[in-house]
Every structure is written in C-alpha cells, then in structure tokens.
Amino acid sequence: MPSSAGRRSAPIGIEPVRRPPERTCVACRATRPKRELVRVVRSPAGGALTVDLRGKAPGRGAYLCPDEACLTKGIGGGALRAALETDIDEATREALAAELRRAAETRTKGGS
To answer: What is the mean pLDDT of the chain?
Structure first.
C-alpha cells in the first residue's frame, strides 16, 4: 500500500487552507492564535526570563493572553512558574510584569 494511502489532498492547482498556529494561555487555558499571545521564555543559558514578541528566542516558552487578568494570574498565581519550571523571585517578577504589560500593549494595538 502506498505511503499516502488515506491522505486527502487538494485538487491540483488549489492550495489547501492553512490555519494559523495556536497556543494555550497558561493562566486561563484559552486557545488563541499564536500571534495574539505574549510569549515568555526561560533562556537555556542562565535561566533568565524575558518576553519574546517574535516567538523565535531559544529556550522553554509559555504563552499568556495580553489582558491584565491573565498577566496577573500568570505571574502572581504561579501558572508561569509551573509552565517554565523555574522559581521567580520578587525582583524578577516585578521586572517581568512591567515587560509583559508593555508587550501586551503592543499586542492589543496590532503590532507584532
């Protein structure tokens, strides 16, 4: 049996419709298009936490909705800590909260 058995393909000359990649917010568990969420990354070297708007930074990532409730729950409620598998001290938490709020403003204004 050929390896393509059971696959459906678009008729020749017609491109299949591709859905945008989706991710889940670690705070509210809602699934949204990747570009609508804010990514936080724990870098592999040193474990520093940063906001990654391009979605290309190396390291373990977690996504948050760009609204205040999810940002607060993600940082303060421990959802981000659990998803990134790292402890977040108070100084890092405050710096990350400010960076996330700036990134959320960018996302809600339609920037990328």
So the answer is: 89
Which residue range forms the structural domain that includes residue 71? Answer: 22-108
CATH number of the domain where residue 75 is located? 3.30.1230.10
What residues have CB less than 8 Å from 37, skipping those under 6 apart?
23, 25, 63, 64, 65, 66, 107
Segment 24-45, tens digit of pLDDT: 999 999 999 999 999 999 999 9
The pTM for the full model equals 0.81
Which segments of the chain are extended strands (E)?
22-24, 31-33, 38-42, 49-52, 60-64
Could you give the 3-state DSSP secondary structure of residue 38? strand
Is residue 30 included in any domain, yes or no? yes
